[in-house]
Amino acid sequence: TGLTLTGAAVGNYILLNSGQQTSTTATIKKMPLKIVRANGIKDKDYDGDAGLSLITVLFEDVNQQPVNVDYSINAHFPDADADETNVDVTVDVKLILDTEKNYELTNSPYTVPNAAKINKIAPVLPAGLTGYQGNALSTVTLPDGWMWKNEAAVMNETGSNKEFSAHYAGDTNHKAGDYTVTVTVSAKRGAS
Questions:
Q1: Which one, of 98, 101, 31, 88, lies nearest residue 59 by Cα?
Q2: Whole-prediction pTM
Q3: Among 126, 133, 139, which residue's Cα sits nearest to residue 179?
Q4: 167-184, pLDDT tens digit by residue?
Q5: Which residues contact 63 (CB under 8 A, 6 or more apart)?
Q6: Closest CA to 94 of 84, 104, 82, 79
Q7: Are 166 and 147 in contact (CB under 8 A)?
Q8: pLDDT confidence of residue 188
């Protein structure tokens, strides 16, 4: 009855009213803390990793006052694949460095709906392609998903890094499109 908390860290705790408090007993609980906003979430290019970096969060206590605390964070997309539209981003936060002794985080993981997406990137160009002078490009085999823009084109000049246009069909994480690929063209066998 009539109990109050005092001390330097009084704002970090709550005095619960259980109806059974006396002048000598009371229940003290950690201050609830909630994430109110995640900052720094933005689109990224596909890199095979669902994680995000440079994300910060803002916290408020039960009185809706901002609170600065030490924390670690793991922000991530649902998977590492590229997305057509924005998707939810999950922010897992853990209080650290004695902060967890005074505060109880009430809403981690924190989900930011329709926050960002992973963009498709250009594919890795085929490498190590070889052909023979006088032959059509159709004689040079491309990897799956690739096709020559003009497979009837004849490789007239010998040399390394001869450029030709090829089309990539695209996949989950890589853009479809026309790309310049190189072929090493050798003199025809038996030619002098």
A1: 31
A2: 0.69
A3: 126
A4: 999 999 999 999 999 999
A5: none
A6: 104
A7: yes
A8: 80
Picking from 33, 41, 40, 34, the residue whose alpha carbon sits closest to that of residue 113 is: 41
The CA distances from residue 81 to 75, 98, 121, 122, in Å, are 15, 37, 11, 14
Q: Residue 167 in contact with residue 114, Cβ under 8 Å?
A: no
What is the total residue count of the chain? 192
- CA–CA separation, 192 vs 177, rounded Å? 38
- Which residues, in sequence order, are CB contacts of 7 under 8 Å at separation 6+? none
Q: To the nearest 10°, the Cα dihedral for 46, 50, 55, 57?
A: 140
More confident residue, 107 or 30: 107
